């Protein structure tokens, strides 16, 4: 029996309809490809015509320039973003997303509480932000309204460097605010994080000096901040205890970047020698060197180290000559062996130094005798920081790895650091008895002929410091 065909089976009419659809589909694909080829040909023709027109215009311009002399202004050639029919041009401009400029906030957003101190480059006050209640330090930049130069370079450098720095041992800049009267350029304020103390005030009021473990903690934090600065190609150039802030939680931060600047490696051939407060100024600066490195900050670190141990500045010279005398008394007389090439420095040519051919102890360093309670590793670190030859001073990273910090007593934990009453909260302005950093426009001291030949007179009879000797019995 023949089976009945299914009503869903294809017949001849269905096959013809399917063939017709396939033919129409292929025709559409062919027309689309042909249209694409025509568009591509037109695009290439337009580009060729544009290049030819540009070449012809450049040729004509060159002929005109050669006839009329050099052009008064360089022609600006910039690729067009799109063609006439909306198609994107093959040339693209490389663009970067950038921030936008906004108006600085007003200083009236902060309520002034009291003055803290007056420094070489600004007045510092304690203030509270009205919206958050957070206590901050407001530093008003010292700007002479009669100076036509505008904002001084010291202020610009301080703002730029503080904005770029992000380290726990460097004071943070929150923002820059201005007074309501924006016509006065002197109303510019830096909003800095507030810390309760500066190291100078603490040392003046302490009944007893810091413990050895506390000195190590402070030095490690200072060296860590210096290492970050030097790795970022920044010289502070005014390190001293009054520029080191300390919180009630034992955190030390480097502040006051009015003398700081970026430097290259190798350093520029001519830098100003009028940097660093006199008592913390390296000998190469006193002798007129205009090319120096981060070693000047390391010398200042050594001076701070000694001040932490004695609670008073280590080298309190009255002027540049007296400062050099005190340096030579403590660190020894420079020779070609201890400081090669020092005689070539501008202010070293006229020095009259005592003879040291015998190599006696009288002409050498007395750091060991001045600090008899300091361990051998501590004396080694302090002596290297106060080396007359800047090439022999350690870097900040080398200080962090020094054996002195691995010996007992170990550095004290910051959480266990003692607290002190805050002078910054008192309603009075602190006046510094220490000298300020050099001001802009000052003249470099010409030391001229200086006689240091009698600097160690009579020293052969003095005591050599503490110590002991073993005797066999």
UniProtKB/TrEMBL annotation:
Protein kinase domain: residues covered: 110-405
Pfam family, one: Pkinase
EC number: 2.7.11.22
GO annotation, biological process: regulation of mitotic cell cycle
Keywords: ATP-binding, Kinase, Nucleotide-binding, Serine/threonine-protein kinase, Transferase
GO cellular component: nucleus
Polar residues biased stretches: 59-69, 81-91
Chain ranges passing through the membrane: none
MF-aspect GO terms: ATP binding; cyclin-dependent protein serine/threonine kinase activity
The UniProt record lists the keyword DNA-binding: no
Region (Disordered), start-end ranges: 1-91, 403-444
Basic and acidic residues bias locations: 19-49, 403-413, 425-444
Keyword Cell membrane annotated: no
Family annotation (SUPFAM superfamilies): Protein kinase-like (PK-like) (SSF56112)
Record-stated family: Belongs to the protein kinase superfamily. CMGC Ser/Thr protein kinase family. CDC2/CDKX subfamily.
UniProt name for this protein: cyclin-dependent kinase
Source organism (scientific name): Cladorrhinum samala
